[in-house]
Amino acid sequence: MKNMIYLDNAATTIPLPDVISAMTDTMMNVYGNPSSTYQVGRQAKKKLDESRTSLAMSIGATSDELIFTSGGTESNNFALHSLAYRDVTKKHIITSVIEHPSVLNTVEELEKKGFDVTYLPVDKSGVISIQDVKNAIRPDTSFISVMYVNNEVGTVQPIEQIAELLKDKDILLHTDAVQAYGILPIDVKKLGADMLSVSSHKVHGPRGTGFVFVKKGVRVQPLLHGGGQEQGVRSGTENVASIAGFAKAISQLHLTDKQKHIVQLQETLLSELSKTEIDYEVNGSMEETRKVPTIVNVWFKGIPASKLLIQLDLSGIMVSAGSACSAGSLKPSRILLSMFQDEKRASESLRISFSEMNTLEEIKTLVETLKKYAV
Ligand SMILES: Cc1ncc(COP(=O)(O)O)c(C=O)c1O
What we know:
- This protein is α/β, with parallel strands linked by helices.
- Helix content is 38%, strand content 14%.
- It has two domains: 5-14 and 254-373, Aspartate Aminotransferase, domain 1, CATH 3.90.1150; 17-251, Aspartate Aminotransferase, domain 2 (3-Layer(aba) Sandwich), CATH 3.40.640.
- The strands form three sheets. The protein has a seven-stranded mixed β-sheet with strand order 2-8-7-6-5-3-4, sandwiched between helices.
- The longest helix has 20 residues, at 255-274.
- 47% of the residues are buried.
């Protein structure tokens, strides 16, 4: 697609050419089932093991702490299901109101099965408070699931501080790190989470693959039963080509350079916007330590997001309103509603999300186009 500007990288990213080559090569030449004992099966197992080792290293984990899944949604479902049923005498769960639907809908299901859930609120900057976490803890609290980075506003939640709070308690911690992985350096030992979810397609890998980190010693419950792959907790023949593509994507990631470039994109967007007549406000924290630079959520005052989305689309620019999961629906963003309790603001806001593939020129074109339609 020529002349298209893709600025919806929080929804998904463009697979790198080397990722596609790695996947094609694996499908053509390493086609065996990794559980088969003959040569091509052993080659597939080797590819799987190598990919697992490098992906585990990317978060400071060991290979046996990684379970491959079909992506962020399955990782979240698996983590929550495992943590909920590890001790049936503990029926209380803590999460936040701004979680991805793969967490929120799963805890809602658990509620129907008799669990009691506390939903932590967020402030206007889109961050939960540690005091609220402290206040929510009960003797029967089983686990806490709070996302590392929010997918609509990019705010960073205080995961390390929550982990610190739980140090001497029998309460486990899961974090959905889908939007954090590949932009924040992650070391699971430092972070302190017991389980952590990651998806490949947010980092230029293929869709439909991801992993869940399970800290050594944490007992998990399979969601999928079958041939006993993935240490018996996630049955199904491993998707070796996609996993190899995922590992290739991570081998191409140069975190410091990426961060520098994306900070520049963010700064350009904000400085170019400030030079215009457009009446706007950024949603969420702009503090460097509380927000990733990949996502900028902007309220264009008085302009319905649906109108801007169409105008930008006609100009070849792809951004989103709310999260991709609700694209197509004109409902105002649930996340922005939790932050501001303002329907108008929530339905007049756009999410612009960058990757290292975007250029400063593209950002300038975006602002030039907004100058025509957002006033
Ligand atoms: C924060 C967050 N969690 C989970 C997911 C789901 O990941 P996947 O699309 O791999 O199922 C997404 C994807 O949009 C996300 O942004």
